[in-house]
Amino acid sequence: MKNDDQNPKTPSIISMESESFYRLIKQVVERLKNENKTEKETDFIGEKETMKLLGISSKSTLQKYRDFSYITFYKINARKILYSKSSIEKFIRENKQSLDD
After folding, report:
1. Which of 20, 66, 67, 80 is a plausible cystine mate for 76, CB 3.0–4.6 Å?
2. How confident is the prediction for the chain on average, in pLDDT?
3. CA pair distance 34, 38, nearest whole angstrom
4. Over 50: is that where the pLDDT of 97 sits?
């Protein structure tokens, strides 16, 4: 006769207090939310989305923002540049002007 503890197909019952159970469930849900967030939300965006966020239509203005290090960018190869969305949002927040100015 086999020992049931060694057979992975044998169902087992885990007992715990309800407070501990709900705390465990909450931790699992938060962990899953964080994993999904990192998979879906990337900080890297392309040129078109960058220009749209900044409200500009000129590639030369975008080049100026790179030259003066206003925004963070990553040159992947000779033709592909990715921009940090968080640095763009920070730039916008720091440079927004009040309507009263």
Report:
1. 80
2. 83
3. 6
4. yes
* Lowest pLDDT segment from 20-29, 30-39, 42-51: 30-39
Q: How far is CA 86 from CA 26, 38, 83, in A?
A: 28, 14, 9
Under 8 Å between Cβ of 83 and 73: yes
The neighbour count for residue 84, using CB atoms within 10 Å, is 17
Query: In this structure, what token pair is assigned to residue 39?
Result: 């998979």
- DSSP annotation of 85 reads H
Residue 56's pLDDT is what? 94
Per DSSP bridges, beta strands 44-45 and 73-75 are unpaired
Nearest one of 81, 75, 77, 76 to 51, comparing CA atoms: 81
Residues 6+ apart with CB under 8 A from 28: none
- Choose among 80, 5, 10, 9: nearest CA to 50: 80
Distance (Å, rounded) from C-alpha 48 to C-alpha 64? 16
